[in-house]
Amino acid sequence: MIFIYLILFPCIVRCEHIATHAVKEKPNLKNETAGPDVVDVKYFYETFCPKCIKFERQFENAINLLSTRLFIQTYPYGKSKITLKNGKVFIKCQHGRKECYGNKLHACVLKYFSNHTEAVLFNICMMHINGSNDATAKKCSQKFNVNVNPILKCAKGIEGVHLLKYYGEESRKANFERIPFVLVNGAHVRWNGSDFSRVLCGEFKQPPPNCSKISLRGIDNHNGTLGNGTKLMHYKNV
After folding, report:
1. Separation between Cα atoms, residue 176 and residue 148, nearest integer Å
2. Which residue, 165, 180, 182, is CA-closest to 236?
3. What fold is seen in the domain 17-213?
4. On the chain, which terminus has fewer CB atoms closer than 10 Å, C or N?
5. Distance, CA of 140 to CA of 160 (rounded, Å)
6. Helical H runs in the chain?
7. What is the pTM of this model?
8. pLDDT < 70 regions, the chain
9. How confident is the prediction for the chain on average, in pLDDT?
10. d(CA 208, CA 212)
11. Is the distance from CB of 56 to CB of 127 less than 8 angstroms?
């Protein structure tokens, strides 16, 4: 169990809304990873939060290094708000309409990619290229060699709205106050800018070979200190 110390300031609130009629949609939650010594990672974020964008560079490195031993679930919703009125769904996003659409793009990628790890990396790609929108989706689709049209159609239509509604319901269950919000093996992790791969490697009973590339010297994941006594992490169940 991990709780990495950091004060994370919430993203600035600027809300808009979208609406449509109600249908039921759920994402593709299939994950390729299985086995007895797998670290579970749940990541709650929104597409235009600066701290989320910064964290995702570390997240991408961790995925590339350890993906075969990680069970990853991501939730592109953040601090958005959903209300239901007269059979319609209203969504308000912290960074306005552009973020509502970006969150829907991410949700649709998770639904339409057959490989979940690649879906997560595709979404990280969009966040790295100046925002999550149609242009970045098309650019990342060239990198990943996928047909982006079903994703764009999903994000522009009723399906994307209700995928976002699903992620909103899951995000409320996590009951977080700030983003990025990360759970590792069920414990809340507050990222402090340190190497996220290093944190994950400390969770394996038998670390995979790639962890040998990362210095774990001095980490004690059970008392929250480095070998020199500097406070790095402590734990809290949620």
Report:
1. 32
2. 182
3. Glutaredoxin (3.40.30)
4. C
5. 19
6. 50-66, 97-112, 116-128, 134-144, 149-156, 158-174, 196-201
7. 0.78
8. 1-36, 215-238
9. 80
10. 8
11. yes
